[in-house]
Amino acid sequence: MTLFSSPTDAWSHRTRIVLAEKGIAIDIVNVEPGRFPEDLLDLNPYHSVPTLVDRDLVLYDSRVIMEYLDERFPHPPLMPVDPVTRAHFRLALYRIERDWYGLVDQIEREQDKKQAAKLKKILRDTVLQSVDLFKLKPYFLSDEFSLVDATIAPILWRLPRYEVDLPRDQAQPILRYASLVFSRPAFRESLSEAEQEMRLA
Ligand SMILES: N[C@@H](CCC(=O)N[C@@H](CS)C(=O)NCC(=O)O)C(=O)O
Fold this sequence. Notes:
Bound molecules: glutathione
Oligomer: single chain
Shape: globular
Low-confidence stretches: none
Number of strands: 4
Distance between the termini: 31 Å
Strand order of the largest sheet: 2-1-3-4
Order of helices and strands: EHEHEEHHHHHHH
Number of domains: 2
CATH topology of the largest domain: Glutathione S-transferase Yfyf (Class Pi), Chain A, domain 2
Number of helices: 9
Helix content: 55-70%
Mean pLDDT: 97
Radius of gyration: 17 Å
Strand content: 5-15%
């Protein structure tokens, strides 16, 4: 199995977290946006990472990849079994992708410094608005690590990169949650060198 992944991209990062949580042996091919290899361009009509190749199966879109991995390698399960709880988790994934990842994508693309600063402030406020949800359980709405946590973690990890400093007094539950997720061995394993440097340098 091969994963084409960008070492700095949050969408790629969430699939690497799932791979590490499940202990899946895989070749990770690091690629840089704008300089994708021919084989990746041939395999994926959208020319995007992450892209997973499992024998004849080629998957793109990080959510499709994460859900495939969770079904193909069921242990440990990263989604609840109950349909209503699953629906809640899927809705959380949708909202985080749209709101948090959407902002991060805009920040990464923005050339104008003033505009980028505005977007970073919106990202900070958007993350802070969710603080009450992090008070309920050790992981996001759950006692167990899930695909939602694999999705939230890459954004929280990147906050220093976007000069977002969450205030301790207001953000304590988010900071507690972040320490819990960041201390997982699989999370450490998932980090590319570039991602390690975002915080550990
Ligand atoms: N919804 C997609 C988004 C992936 C995405 O935006 N990937 C960027 C990462 S840099 C990409 O490959 N962009 C293509 C390019 O920049 O050439 C997913 O979940 O995989």
